[in-house]
Structures are given as structure tokens and as C-alpha cells.
Amino acid sequence: MITLKGEHIYLRALEPEDLEFIYAIENDESIWEISNTQTPYSKFLIKQYLEHVHKDIFEVKQLRLLISSYNNVNLGLIDLFDFDFKNKRAGVGILVKEPDDRLQGYGKEALSLLVNYSFSHLGLHQLYCNISESNKASIKLFTNQGFEKVGLKKAWNYVNGSYKNEYLLQLINN
């Protein structure tokens, strides 16, 4: 796996040592809305996932990378999901774990690295993401990277007793 290096952060493959970090993210109820999670994950399940995460994106249709600072602080995760080789597209998801690390440019740099990797190394034609209408920071992050709002899915997600709209954004590599 190529390590994707930026100015302030780098993206790397997940390692078994990342168990506690991923466990903390997957079990943080405050971010379940972003990941469409409904139930907690056990360390056992995450450990099993980490044992198989090395498989090729063409086989498992997903690539999850850890966002790390150069002083080796784990900052978050960035994913390609629903990898569709035939149609040359994939979904993108990103999470910077700690609120104090958000809006510091880490997400922007990670997204830029992943977009460039997706188009230059994986040969993808387009990327897409789904973002809650109320998630202004993520909308800004993706639109500043060139993603365009192409649709609004009304009453798409049921969250805390009410329905929320969700935008579909795309970035097409011309």
C-alpha cells in the first residue's frame, strides 16, 4: 500500500495497533449519524475486520485509510466505499475524530490526497458523497474540493425522532 503524504498529514493503511482508535470511533454515539451506525461494535469484531483489511479494494469494494499527523497522532479515517470498477466510481467518507482537530485543514488535505489517488492510481471517473443538509462544515469541505451538489434526498435519514435531508455530491474527473 502506498503511503499518501501531504504537507501536514499522511494517509496509511490500517494496522492491528489501530484497534483502540477505531473502537473509540465506531462506538462514539455522537458520530453515528454521520456513519449510519445503529449499534456499538465489539473489539472482537473490529479485530476481525483489521485482520482482513489488507484485502484488495477490487475484492472488498472498500478502502479505509487512517489520517495521521507527522508526529504519529491518529486524527481520523477516510474511506472509499461502494467501489465500482465497471463504472469507475466510489463513495467517499471522512471523519476527523476530535472536535479540536476539525477545521484545522486535516480533512481538506486528506480529501485532496484521496481524490488524487482515486483518479491517478485507481483510474476512477467519479467520486460521490452523501452529506446531511445540516452538516455545513462537510458540505464546505467537499464543495471546496470541487464536488458539486447534484441532488437533495428529502427526509432521507431518520435521526433522533425526525427525518433529515441529505445532499448527494459528485466530483467527475474530466
Automatic annotation (TrEMBL):
Transmembrane segments: none
Transferase keyword on record: yes
Annotated keywords: Transferase
MF terms in GO: acyltransferase activity, transferring groups other than amino-acyl groups
Stretches assigned to the N-acetyltransferase domain: 9-170
InterPro entries the UniProt entry points to: Acyl_CoA_acyltransferase, GNAT_dom
PROSITE patterns for this protein: GNAT
SUPFAM superfamilies xref list: Acyl-CoA N-acyltransferases (Nat)
Record's protein name: GNAT family N-acetyltransferase
Upper classification of the organism: Bacteria, Pseudomonadati, Bacteroidota, Flavobacteriia, Flavobacteriales
